[in-house]
Amino acid sequence: MSGLGLVLHPTRDVSEVVGIIERWATRHHKSLMVRAEDKHRVPASVAPVPADQVAVLADALISIGGDGTMLGALRSAVLDPKPVLGVHLGRLGFLVEVEPPELPDALSRLLSHDFTIESHACLACDVCGDDVVAFNDIALVRQPGSGFVTATLAVDDQQYGYYRADAVVVSTPTGSTAYSYAAGGPLVSPAADAVVITPSAPMAGISRSVVLSPDEKIRLELEPNSSAVVVEMDGLVFRDAATEGTVDISYRRNAGLVVRFDPQRYQERNQLKMSLLDLPFLPDQLSELLPDELRRQSQRELPPRC
């Protein structure tokens, strides 16, 4: 691997992690690149390139942030998937595996191809004529105060039923632990091929999650009596205040390639994180359960409160 592309969290301070990568790249005579908009956030030795060229020119991508940054890196390479290494700067981080102190060893293992690839599917969506992809989910969400999302569901052109809910979430197996899970949807193994449709706070119509084959074509069509709808892609607003139109969704296998060094340890961490999400405690309450030294360390790492 001669060139690595950096994908940065949009707001967090990434200078320490970028410094580790830059020093490693200098020692190993590797080139680094970043999108031109982020050139002021990295050392001068990191080459700025057009945003749509980072994934094209790089042999691998390094995502520095949380799951949102990781999803952005995967979307940027969807036309020509490249291995994506996630460095954790977020809060939970279900997709990222490497902590900053582990980075030098991880980069050396990346260079020597001492890793496995975890393949991820995406949802390829036609939203009112615009093509988008989502690795977690695509959601039709009501605007606050404007009523409910009312949409019909068709599977392979067969009418299935309708939704009247606060939101309708269509997710991949990876995305089943995100918005869909919060709406009461099932956890789906990342090794499975499936599409999950989950209504959030349903008032009428389909009220439970529907699990479909990856080969079935999905269409959601807004009804004339639907409220204004926000269309979200991996949590990002793609279309605001839509009042009519359709969303056609298909499943695309092997659309993203995630670098894994220790899959078993990674799965154990995620299992623990999911368990903690279901505990009805605030972070300060959970920290009281830790030994004194670990509690002091966690308090030093917590961001200041506003």
From TrEMBL:
<dbReference type="InterPro" id="IPR017437">
    <property type="entry name" value="ATP-NAD_kinase_PpnK-typ_C"/>
</dbReference>
<dbReference type="InterPro" id="IPR016064">
    <property type="entry name" value="NAD/diacylglycerol_kinase_sf"/>
</dbReference>
<keyword id="KW-0547">Nucleotide-binding</keyword>
<dbReference type="InterPro" id="IPR017438">
    <property type="entry name" value="ATP-NAD_kinase_N"/>
</dbReference>
<dbReference type="Pfam" id="PF20143">
    <property type="entry name" value="NAD_kinase_C"/>
</dbReference>
<feature type="binding site">
    <location>
        <begin position="136"/>
        <end position="137"/>
    </location>
    <ligand>
        <name>NAD(+)</name>
    </ligand>
</feature>
<feature type="binding site">
    <location>
        <position position="166"/>
    </location>
    <ligand>
        <name>NAD(+)</name>
    </ligand>
</feature>
<dbReference type="Pfam" id="PF01513">
    <property type="entry name" value="NAD_kinase"/>
</dbReference>
<dbReference type="GO" id="GO:0006741">
    <property type="term" value="P:NADP+ biosynthetic process"/>
</dbReference>
<dbReference type="InterPro" id="IPR002504">
    <property type="entry name" value="NADK"/>
</dbReference>
<dbReference type="GO" id="GO:0005737">
    <property type="term" value="C:cytoplasm"/>
</dbReference>
<feature type="binding site">
    <location>
        <position position="164"/>
    </location>
    <ligand>
        <name>NAD(+)</name>
    </ligand>
</feature>
<keyword id="KW-0067">ATP-binding</keyword>
<protein>
    <recommendedName>
        <fullName>NAD kinase</fullName>
        <ecNumber>2.7.1.23</ecNumber>
    </recommendedName>
</protein>
<keyword id="KW-0520">NAD</keyword>
<feature type="binding site">
    <location>
        <begin position="67"/>
        <end position="68"/>
    </location>
    <ligand>
        <name>NAD(+)</name>
    </ligand>
</feature>
<keyword id="KW-0521">NADP</keyword>
<feature type="binding site">
    <location>
        <position position="201"/>
    </location>
    <ligand>
        <name>NAD(+)</name>
    </ligand>
</feature>
<dbReference type="GO" id="GO:0046872">
    <property type="term" value="F:metal ion binding"/>
</dbReference>
<feature type="active site" description="Proton acceptor">
    <location>
        <position position="67"/>
    </location>
</feature>
<dbReference type="GO" id="GO:0005524">
    <property type="term" value="F:ATP binding"/>
</dbReference>
<comment type="similarity">
    <text>Belongs to the NAD kinase family.</text>
</comment>
<keyword id="KW-0418">Kinase</keyword>
<keyword id="KW-0808">Transferase</keyword>
<dbReference type="GO" id="GO:0019674">
    <property type="term" value="P:NAD+ metabolic process"/>
</dbReference>
<keyword id="KW-0963">Cytoplasm</keyword>
<dbReference type="GO" id="GO:0051287">
    <property type="term" value="F:NAD binding"/>
</dbReference>
<comment type="function">
    <text>Involved in the regulation of the intracellular balance of NAD and NADP, and is a key enzyme in the biosynthesis of NADP. Catalyzes specifically the phosphorylation on 2'-hydroxyl of the adenosine moiety of NAD to yield NADP.</text>
</comment>
<dbReference type="GO" id="GO:0003951">
    <property type="term" value="F:NAD+ kinase activity"/>
</dbReference>
